[in-house]
UniProtKB/TrEMBL annotation:
Residues 10-255 form the ABC transporter domain. The lineage of its organism: Bacteria, Pseudomonadati, Pseudomonadota, Alphaproteobacteria, Rhodobacterales. Belongs to the ABC transporter superfamily. It is found in: Cell inner membrane. This is Peptide ABC transporter ATP-binding protein. One of its GO terms (cellular component) is plasma membrane. The keyword Signal does not apply. It comes from Pseudosulfitobacter pseudonitzschiae.
Amino acid sequence: MKDMALDHVLSIKDLTVFRGAAKILDRVTLALGQGETLALVGESGAGKSTIATAIMRLLENARVTGSATLAGEGDLFTLSERKMVKLRGRRLSMIFQDAGTALNPSYTVGRQLGTTLQRIHGLSKAEAWKQAIELFTSVGINDPEGRMTAFPHQLSGGMQQRVMVAIALAGSPDLLLADEPTSALDVTIQAQIVRLILQLTRERGASCVFVLHDLALASQACDRIVVLYAGQVVESGPARDVLERHRHPYTRQLKSCVLEIGAKDLVAPEGTVPSHDQMPIGCRFCTRCPRAVARCADQAPPLVPARQTATGPLDHHIACWNPE
Ligand SMILES: Nc1ncnc2c1ncn2[C@@H]1O[C@H](COP(=O)(O)OP(=O)(O)OP(=O)(O)O)[C@@H](O)[C@H]1O
Ligand code: SF4
Ligand SMILES: [Mg+2]
């Protein structure tokens, strides 16, 4: 992949995360342009949340290598913690998968949003209160004034997620990392929250890395898709190419699961992801792949352009020795 750090808001190169001896992420490379939305797709445990948390530099008990370049700031992994504190909430912001644990149970949601607004914009308490109500309105919280004095446990899971969205948007970040709400919320509410986040980021011209389980939504709503398997990128590119002209056997399996079952949610393909202490040294998908050839078990395939055209390689990449 050419070095795109200069013309991208975010460029991640060879991001590798170890937890003890386990390689949770392995040489993850991706890039995101101004105003683009990128979907991270893959089964549970693929490493989607780990990527988002690593970008925020909030991973605990993990060793991180590689780089994550944010336009105008340089490599986030080498910045001081003081600088990161300044960037979080202002230039990059994250909406966590589980709002229940991300919100502080001891403070009202109005106070949590208000103090964020005061810290980021230097507003007075009264100004922050007024702006908090406006933000609660924009994320679809009904009776926003009344909700300001509610504690998180007094709100439904969907409302808690909306509060999280408001807090994440308080500093008008130009990069939003949104981890899809878990199944703790029912599917309709999840879809509403996902659509709300996409709409608000688009309106603000921000870029968004979105963890999504819904492949159909990823293709409709996102510009780019990155398919992850066991901590590795197996296919990435413009959403339409990945969905309609995919070449990796795992992408096909993900897609056919959705189509066969007619479900919107991602249903895992047959078999299970190997545990980290039994990860194949070659292609991590080889234990489940119908197209495996001899070299797959002991040689890891590199991420390479999926197609060549008369004008050169396309911005669509796969890691596979025997692609479709
Ligand atoms: N705090 C932790 N300590 C040890 N291992 C962890 C920790 N957090 C995650 N992992 C491991 O890292 C891998 C990736 O986890 P991650 O949470 O990033 O997956 P995910 O793709 O977000 O999954 P899901 O769709 O279930 O949210 C998994 O194997 C998981 O068991
Ligand atoms: S490298 Fe081999 S095992 Fe891995 S996806 Fe491609 S064909 Fe299947
Ligand atoms: Mg996750």
